[in-house]
Structure prediction request, 328 residues.
Amino acid sequence: MKVFITGATGLLGNSITNELLKKGHRITALVRSRERGKTILDPRVALIEGTLEAVDQFSGSLQGFDVMIHAAAIYGEYYRNGDELALFNVNVNGTKALFEAARKNGINNIIYISSSAVLDTENIDEVDERASYSETEDPYFRSKVLSEQAVNEFAMANPSVRIITILPTVMLGPGDRGPTPTGNIILNYLKGKTRFIFPGSHRIVDVRDVAHAAVQAINTGRGGERYLIGGRKYSFSEIFKIFSNITGNPPLKKTISPGKLLMIARLVTLLHNIKGESSPLKPEIIKRLQKNFWYNSSKAEKELGVAFRSLDETLSDTMAWFKENRYA
Ligand SMILES: NC(=O)c1ccc[n+]([C@@H]2O[C@H](COP(=O)([O-])OP(=O)(O)OC[C@H]3O[C@@H](n4cnc5c(N)ncnc54)[C@H](OP(=O)(O)O)[C@@H]3O)[C@@H](O)[C@H]2O)c1
Prediction:
């Protein structure tokens, strides 16, 4: 099939591109910089240079594709530069403009990458695709809610376009060039900057398992459906134990209390706000890590054949990639 993909230079898009190539699909990728695209992507991938802030400038090149996979969004970039205008412009307006351009060019199959962050987890232990939208205050999470809602409106107005929505939880794996905020937890550990085990737990999925789900969805996904790719829930003490097994470093012994971590997060956020910057340690995120919910991915397991690899494999391949690529 001829596939047009956005975000191919990012963590997930790159993994999806590798999976598509393995299956023999012909791929064209939207890249913000052709030079960067060439250094990251396989030479078999054709490139269109452009940005989601100006879809009109490349929409004429969207003819002749069987499928579009929309994996581009601003994520880690926002947590580094705090640019809310760009965040909403790209994640919400860019998505709307891209879907319109795809429809005008006859693309009737779309795989859209949303996020588990759009799902409400308040007072719920087991979260699945039926959860309502989160009323989150976090701007990135909110941009993903608004983006998914824009996609729903588009779907209502264009029932002949088959749209499948993939909702990954926090992804880790090789190819995290950003690096994403979660990739930074690993990098900080590798750089010896981590002194304490964080309290609480994280829901983690290997990016290659999400990529597999997105590519499977082209053939076996049901149009109009959402698929949660929720991975598994791990406590930070489990995660740090695996870090120490992989690196051979002595295990971290001390766990910082949730109250103390929240206090530090508030202070860090205040200092960053004064400087007009986005905080890397937001109180909302710390609070989320203390919650006990888990994601139920059984729909994706059944319909998309998703199987989750072990956390040991994910963390050890991620660490190896960071080392090979001189991030740590
Ligand atoms: N990572 C996670 O844990 C996670 C969890 C749930 C959902 N998601 C969602 O999964 C998708 C992929 O995330 P990711 O982790 O792979 O992100 P990532 O590594 O930060 O990659 C983002 C991709 O989007 C591209 N991009 C950003 N702004 C753009 C613009 N204005 N125009 C065109 N392309 C633009 C980037 O291009 P450049 O290479 O030029 O920067 C890059 O290819 C996103 O929709 C994200 O919201 C991510």
About this structure: The first strand starts at residue 2 and ends at 6. Residues 84-104 form the longest helix (21 residues). The domain at 2-175+203-231+293-309 is CATH 3.40.50.720 (Rossmann fold).
